[in-house]
Amino acid sequence: xxxxxxxxxxxxxxxxxxxxxxxxxxxxxxxxxxxxxxxxxxxxxxxxxxxxxxxxxxxxxxxxxxxxxxxxxxxxxxxxxxxxxxxxxxxxxxxxxxxxxxxxxxxxxxxxxxxxxxxxxxxxxxxxxxxxxxxxxxxxxxxxxxxxxxxxxxxxxxxxxxxxxxxxxxxxxxxxxxxxxxxxxxxxxxxxxxxxxxxxxxxxxxxxxxxxxxxxxxxxxxxxxxxxxxxxxxxxxxxxxxxxxxxxxxxxxxxxxxxxxxxxxxxxxxxxxxxxxxxxxxxxxxxxxxxxxxxxxxxxxxxxxxxxxxxxxxxxxxxxxxxxxxxxxxxxxxxxxxxxxxxxxxxxxxxxxxxxxxxxxxxxxxxxxxxxxxxxxxxxxxxxxxxxxxxxxxxxxxxxxxxxxxxxxxxxxxxxxxxxxxxxxxxxxxxxxxxxxxxxxxxxxxxxxxxxxxxxxxxxxxxxxxxxxxxxxxxxxxxxxxxxxxxxxxxxxxxxxxxxxxxxxxxxxxxxxxxxxxxxxxxxxxxxxxxxxxxxxxxxxxxxxxxxxxxxxxxxxxxxxxxxxxxxxxxxxxxxxxxxxxxxxxxxxxxxxxxxxxxxxxxxxxxxxxxxxxxxxxxxxxxxxxxxxxxxxxxxxxxxxxxxxxxxxxxxxxxxxxxx
Length: 660
Description:
Elements: H1 3-26, E1 34-35, H2 36-39, E2 46-58, E3 62-65, H3 87-99, E4 109-114, E5 117-122, H4 124-132, E6 137-147, H5 153-168, H6 180-187, H7 198-217, H8 227-235, H9 242-245, H10 248-257, H11 259-264, E7 271-274, H12 291-299, E8 304-309, H13 318-334, E9 338-343, H14 350-361, E10 366-369, H15 375-384, E11 389-392, E12 402-407, H16 409-423, E13 428-433, H17 440-454, E14 459-464, H18 471-477, E15 482-484, E16 500-503, E17 509-517, H19 519-532, H20 534-541, E18 546-551, E19 558-562, H21 570-583, E20 592-594, E21 600-603, H22 610-614, E22 623-624, H23 638-644
């Protein structure tokens, strides 16, 4: 390289530095490289230091200097800021010539690594030159500075990175959240503690390099997430092998298809839980005539083609039958405005993907997948067909392309708890819970609070059907005479013992009351919201977050069925509670609440947010029993708990299951 070429390279780098400096000042960011000594003012933040030797350092992770010396010579992006006739510029250009000479820059820089970022001690100009040429890595002698452990999510993610580095030997693979690396291992087909071979490392870096380019092209560097975070989202839909075989424009297109889910990662609350049919605007007046009215008419559909995807057949499953009755109700109410088909007995995975694609080929504009295990297929379909409205009957899934729906059954549980308290002779009340999934602890707690409303001495004896085969018999054998059993799925399917039961003197159980789902009301209201434009309005209003419909008694998605055997006064009590919940004057959790550890969860004045209720993982102090650990569950319960369990984020992923 001649001197003129070196000067041109310096001037090019100088312009980049000056532009970065101006942008930082304009947006209120620090315009120079960060200084590690200013970040770590004393050793109280340092747990130790480790000599890592000479490594290939990713240039994009070099963000600062060890000391304040020469700080003002560089912009935050490590491009130069000093004039081209300065001594600094002369030395910088000499390094340009060395870099493009026969031997290149071979001497490693010396630097410190802290929280996955590198701070140069010796070799600032070398780092700057190599960055100006977009060199992917720089050889460097590294000393790792380990932060003191804390509950800070960033520190926890870094400790997770240190463990993963022992298996990968790569600094490029770092996540913003702890627990993500084990999901990457699973997505790549490895065991959680698998140590990568040199060949596996090389193949990953090759594919990841293409992915990083697509990530940056879409503006990923402006998000508070890493390229590895985005890759994990992408791998939920596409196989890793696709990275190296897909042309760059097509790869960027596939990443764009899941980009909304990548952006959601940067939000502290990525799921919008809508507790009423806010977006349902069937009462709204039609658009005004004229140009505006014609525009709205062109946007809003006048007919809809809808497909229901059921994992089981209605004649085989009460859950599938409940949704199928909802489908029939939708057809009866909406008439010719909807064309509806049902696809039953569809297995999760590729079979479900094929079924959904067949429905779309047949004109389906809306898909209702009625069980959580179908979420994996829903994600793939949503990425491939963004114009199709895809819904999955599950709770708290952070995927913007798939809306989830469930019902606030805890409201009905509160009412049946009040009935149980009124009917109990000694205050001991049994409760058979299904699975430790989202919403179930809320149902247990609401039931317990309802029982205490009518019987201050009430205590709930909790058992789990996912742990033992016959919880009802165990409670009856213990002398418990009032037991909350499995709820009825539909009011026309009355098979005793259902719901809240009373043990008779002859050992039989008589049903008293039960919450139930009315999926037909939900489907009608949701479809009407699509016709009226409420679907799109809700998406705009919630800032691109994933939407979870969680409707209750005020939406008529949940109700309580009463037996004719209830004593006088109890039906009137139920009606008072039902009306109070519907009009908002009664809120089951707005009372003084202590948990089993004696911690006050509510002082009686605060309102729990929908997300707090949905994600409850604690039990009230009047409940005797505990949420079972994953290892205690029967095998048949484990797949659902992996998808919807209150502790699902703590479980190691399985290679054969969906990557959440």
